[in-house]
Design a protein that fits this description.
Elements lengths: L1 E5 L5 H7 L4 E6 L9 E3 L12 E4 L26 H19 L5 E6 L4 H7 L5 E3 L8 E2 L2 E6 L14 E2 L11 H6 L3 H11 L1
Parallel strand pairs: 1-2, 1-4, 2-3, 4-5, 7-9
Antiparallel strand pairs: 5-8, 6-8
């Protein structure tokens, strides 16, 4: 299959599909951190190129439930987008999510954390399932929602005990914290490739 991995720069999902013989290409505004087929650019420019499947990881900063308080609080002590600008950023994030969801591609999976009510209302499509890393061999929790079109729910492959919350919850502020928080677990990437590829 010809598979587009949207908004992914680490290559975990792309490489899992390539290992199973598929023509997978990742696309992100960031260069890839792992050698492999990758497009640097706005994924919306590449949605009409005859893909059989797309798995997308649209940015969640302005849609995740954990950041909803910043729509109502302002601060000068943190570098957080608050107030009216945050609503603008939410609109941009929703626009990208819906562009991916409505892409002319037969099979689609979009991944995001649990969304706050404002984002959910604007998107208007409820997720298909939620998964946890510990269902795929990782001893962590990080509830993740999957929006699926023409794909079955992802089945757990290796349920293990939870030893701690996802490492990103304790990650100190840094310039690349967002990268660490957005990483797809290899067990989840392999399950996607095995079950949908």
């Amino acid at each position: 299959m010809k598979i587009l991995i949207a908004c992914e720069f680490m290559g975990h999902v792309r490489d899992a599909f390539i290992a199973r013989g598929h023509a997978a290409i990742s696309c992100d505004l960031e260069p890839t951190t792992a050698p492999g087929p990758h497009i640097v650019g706005d994924v919306r420019n590449y949605l009409r190129e005859g893909w059989d499947m797309m798995i997308g990881f649209p940015p969640c900063t302005y849609m995740t439930n954990t950041g909803v308080r910043w729509f109502y609080e302002t601060t000068s002590s943190r570098k957080v987008v608050t107030g009216p600008l945050r609503w603008t950023k939410l609109s941009e994030a929703v626009e990208l999510f819906l562009a991916l969801w409505n892409a002319p591609i037969d099979k689609v999976c979009l991944e995001n954390p649990v969304m706050h009510p404002h984002a959910s209302e604007l998107i208007g499509v409820k997720w298909s399932q939620t998964i946890q890393p510990n269902q795929f061999g990782h001893h962590e929790t990080k509830q993740t929602c999957l929006w699926l079109r023409n794909l079955p729910n992802l089945k757990p492959t290796d349920t293990v005990p939870v030893y701690h919350r996802h490492r990103s919850h304790n990650e100190p502020p840094s310039a690349d914290r967002w990268k660490k928080r957005s990483e797809t677990f290899p067990g989840v990437a392999n399950a996607m490739a095995n079950q949908w590829g």
